[in-house]
Amino acid sequence: MLKIEGLTAAVDGKPILKGIDLAVPAGEVHAVMGPNGSGKSTLAYVLAGREGYEVTGGSATWDGLDLLALEPEERAAAGLFLAFQYPVELPGVGNATFLRTALNAIRRARGEPELDAMQFLRLARERLRALSMPEEMLKRSVNVGFSGGEKKRNEILQMALLRPRLAVLDETDSGLDIDALRIVADGVNAMRGPDFTALVITHYQRLLDHIVPDRVHVLVGGRIVRSGGPELARELEREGYAALQAQAA
Ligand code: ADP
Ligand code: MG
Ligand code: MG
């Protein structure tokens, strides 16, 4: 299970996370919702170990492993995957090369044999089909010239190839039209099972119509101010965050 206790973090010396307590039992999918600027991406980055996000207190463990003590690549080797809210463009780096390098690094860490170019291509084609992505996406530079929706689908393609045990999806729904939303949600739902745990971060409820979470947590001002079942997402959609923001302030 993912266990976060009293987690505080700062960016440029400014406190952003102000004591997060959150437990996601193995095999469950939890949603983190919240208004803009509440610290959702900061939480994702802290879990992934992004530079510049300073942990000032508390803990985050995954299967008893102290996540915060590990280098980002060690976290990935332990099965953690982060889908970025703003996927980075890598001009000159082919998407296929990038994906195969990432996949083989994970496979080495798991003690599995690496895939050669042909084996990788077979697997990638299968995953692309499942996500209704054209094969041409593999030939292009990573995310360069991709539309918002294509970038998000590319994040899900990475996830489908790497098959993480713990996934953090940061606003993967933003920029998606309704068909792409369904495809992305299907991609996540296909991973669900006892060996897949996820934190799905979203501002809106609509993604959660397709990925029905086991629990919903509301992050306001760097703290979880409410938790509940899937119905909490619909309540927020109706009533907005204003009341919870006023309460938190
Ligand atoms: P959310 O994802 O919920 O919209 P963020 O985690 O992106 O929220 O941001 C939380 C707060 O931290 C905001 O007030 C934002 O301005 C601030 N913040 C985030 N990243 C940085 C940064 N790199 N430098 C300075 N402030 C930042
Ligand atoms: Mg935001
Ligand atoms: Mg964000």
Structure, described:
By secondary structure, the protein is α/β, with parallel strands linked by helices. It has a single domain, classed as Rossmann fold, CATH 3.40.50.300. The protein has 9 helices and 12 strands. It has helices at residues 40-48, 72-77, 95-110, 117-130, 148-162, 178-191, 207-210, 231-239, 242-248, and strands at residues 2-11, 14-24, 29-33, 53-62, 65-66, 80-83, 90-94, 141-142, 166-170, 197-202, 215-220, 223-228. The chain has a 6-stranded mixed sheet with strand order 6-9-10-3-11-12, sandwiched between helices. The protein has a 4-stranded antiparallel sheet with strand order 2-1-4-5. Helix 5 packs parallel to helix 6 (178-191). The chain is globular. The two termini are 31 Å apart.
Summarize the structure.
Belongs to the ABC transporter superfamily. Ycf16 family. The protein has 249 residues and is an alpha/beta fold. It contains nine helices and twelve strands.
Number of helices: 9
Helix content: 25-40%
Structural class given helices, strands, pairing?
Answer: alpha/beta
Going by CATH, the architecture would be: 3-Layer(aba) Sandwich
Give the DSSP E fraction (strand runs of 2 or more residues): 25-35%
Would you state the CATH class? Alpha Beta
**Bound small-molecule species:** adenosine-5'-diphosphate, magnesium ion
Q: How many beta-strand elements?
A: 12
User: Which H/E pattern describes the elements?
Assistant: EEEHEEHEEHHEHEHEHEEHH
Number of domains: 1
* Gyration radius over CA: 18 Å
